[in-house]
Design a protein that fits this description.
Blueprint lengths: L2 E8 L2 E8 L3 H19 L7 H8 L1 E3 L2 H16 L9 H6 L12 H8 L7 E4 L4 E4 L12 H15 L4 E6 L2 E6 L7 E6 L8 E7 L3 E6 L4 E4 L2 E4 L14 E8 L2 H11 L4 H10 L3 E6 L4 E3 L7 E3 L2
Antiparallel strand pairs: 1-2, 2-6, 3-5, 4-5, 6-7, 7-10, 8-9, 9-16, 10-13, 11-12, 13-14, 14-15
Helix pairs in contact: 1-6, 3-7, 6-7
Bound molecules: adenosine monophosphate and magnesium ion.
């Protein structure tokens, strides 16, 4: 029995793996290769990625992987009535999110850019794997969902090897396979949104699930004394002013946990509760008043850190 741990930088974040079993090394390396492959396909900021080619020409036949991620991104856009919007990219660009020149745009710029944002304008041809946009200048950014897809791929890979348990963390996007040797659960720390990185507000004990958190503490910028986050409200064109400090979603598939955590960040607590029941996902919400709300299904597996 052997263990193998690795840390790499990819998809704009730190990716940690902890894997146990005879083929832990092989599994970890296979996952690293897979993540690099997916990054080449779906990176919004890499000129030659499949996604960038699609964004520049507006109609393109993509790989099965990219098509699947776009299809699920559109599905989540529909299910959240556009709180998550697969076509939010022009706004993300306008605000300079992830660039060196983040700035507050003018109202006119926002008004013009909003015309390009509507997930209903993204057309998918399931047979031909072709994606096309209704309007010139429309774009797709998979930043709110691609890490989730990569985490799901990692778990698929662990299953293909002689591995007894696995843990992967893509910048706060965690998925676990089975349990660690001699233990019943993996412990997943839930970040304290007002603390430093790795300062946890609680610990979740889980198997075979994904846990993804969205919040403005991860990435934001200040202008004239106001803080702006990196999740945009596609209806107003402004960064979301959330009722929450963070939203954590626990789901079987990380792509859904990732997509819904981004989407639910802009909803009310009542809306979060009803969507979580309908979509069969669990949530841990930290409100602006630092109150913690936990779905009934996971209360027994969640321990608050004192
Ligand atoms: P996450 O960190 O998973 O919550 O995703 C946030 C990232 O998704 C941002 O950095 C943007 O690239 C992109 N994004 C921002 N707002 C939205 C939105 N409303 N719908 C979809 N993607 C978004
Ligand atoms: Mg997300």
């Amino acid at each position: 029995m052997s263990n193998f741990e690795s840390r790499i930088l990819a998809m704009g974040t730190i990716i940690d793996q902890k894997v146990q079993g005879n083929e832990s090394y092989e599994a970890v390396k296979a996952v690293e290769e897979e993540i690099k492959r997916l990054q080449k396909l779906m990176n919004f900021y890499e000129e030659n990625s499949e996604l960038s080619i699609l964004n520049s020409i507006g109609s393109y036949k993509v790989s099965e992987d990219t098509f699947k991620v776009i299809r699920i991104a559109k599905e989540i856009s529909e299910k959240t009535e556009g709180s998550f919007d697969i076509s939010a990219a022009p706004l993300v660009k306008l605000w300079g999110i992830f660039s060196d020149d983040e700035r507050v745009p003018t109202e006119n710029e926002i008004k013009d850019t909003l015309k390009l944002v509507n997930y209903k304008d993204i057309n998918l041809d399931n047979d031909k794997l072709n994606v096309s946009f209704d309007k010139k200048g429309q774009m797709i950014d998979l930043g709110a969902i691609a890490k989730g897809y990569a985490a799901d791929k990692a778990i698929e890979i662990y299953k293909m090897y002689d591995v007894t348990g696995g843990f992967i963390n893509l910048g706060g996007n965690v998925s676990v396979y089975n349990s660690p040797v001699g233990k019943e659960y993996w412990n997943v720390g839930i970040q304290n949104p007002i603390g430093k990185r790795d300062n946890f507000i609680g610990v979740l004990m889980i198997n075979n699930k994904s846990v993804v958190t969205s919040g403005n503490y991860e990435r934001n910028f200040e202008s004239d004394g106001k803080t702006y986050g990196h999740i945009i409200n596609p209806k107003t064109g402004w960064p979301v002013e959330s009722e929450f400090l963070s939203v954590t979603v626990i789901a079987d598939k990380s792509i859904y946990a990732d997509g819904f955590s981004t989407a639910l960040f802009s909803k009310s607590l009542e809306a979060v509760k009803s969507i979580s029941i309908k979509e069969e996902i669990d949530v841990i919400i930290i409100t602006k008043e630092s109150e913690v709300w936990v779905s009934p299904n996971v209360i027994e597996n969640f321990v608050l850190v004192k």
